[in-house]
Write a structure and sequence with these properties.
The chain is mainly beta and 191 residues long. Helix content is 10%, strand content 36%. The chain contains two helices and 20 strands. The longest helix is centred in the C-terminal third of the chain and has 12 residues.
Length: 191
């Protein structure tokens, strides 16, 4: 399995802004604008992921197979212990589909209207399979979004959210904060 990921020297050749220890990036991932991407410690990025634009990834983050992060210059931040399940799409930049302007990256910018907004996944956020997150969304600490949801507004801390658009259905336990302290005590050198 290790052969499917870049070695330490291989990571250096990607041209990332910076990266920490124990970083596993699949050789089948696509990275655009690597000089704008920072990766913390203990991070895994699986096959067929796309990372494009200004992206900051914290520590103990997993980006599952087929997840796509389109940050542009607005940026995407994934804080410690956050994660994306397979097929998640995160957009910090998107076309305006109102019909008042043209769309797609092959049309000159003066004919388009890009919607931009930094996306932030705070600590202990997890996004379910095939969910779409739109520009400007902030997921507060501990927020969870269920599979196949559409997130177009900010999500409250320690809630479970599902649907199109995603809405809170219940609160989430904060026991994970105690587990984090225990985990970090046992893994002092890991980030």
């Amino acid at each position: 399995m290790k052969n499917n990921f870049y070695s330490q020297n291989g990571l250096k050749t990607l041209g990332l802004k910076d990266f920490g220890d124990n970083v596993l990036i699949s050789k089948k991932a696509s990275i655009y604008g690597a000089e704008n991407i920072s990766v913390g410690n203990n991070v895994r990025i699986d096959d067929f992921c796309v990372l494009s634009g200004k992206i900051e990834i914290g520590n103990y983050v997993h980006i599952s197979a087929g997840a796509h992060l389109f940050a542009g210059d607005a940026g995407i931040i994934m804080r410690d212990f956050s994660g994306l399940s397979p097929g998640v799409k995160v957009f910090a930049i998107s076309d305006d589909f109102s019909g008042n302007v043209m769309v797609n990256s092959m049309v000159n910018i003066e004919y388009r209207n890009l919607k931009k907004g930094r996306v932030i996944l705070n600590k202990h956020c997890q996004i379910g399979t095939n969910t779409v997150i739109l520009p400007g969304v902030v997921l507060s600490e501990g927020a969870i979004v269920g599979a196949q949801s559409l997130v177009k507004g900010c999500i409250a801390q320690w809630t479970v959210n599902v649907g199109i658009p995603a809405k809170s259905i219940k609160n989430r336990s904060r026991k994970v904060l105690e587990l984090e302290k225990q985990f970090l005590k046992e893994h002092k050198h890991g980030g």
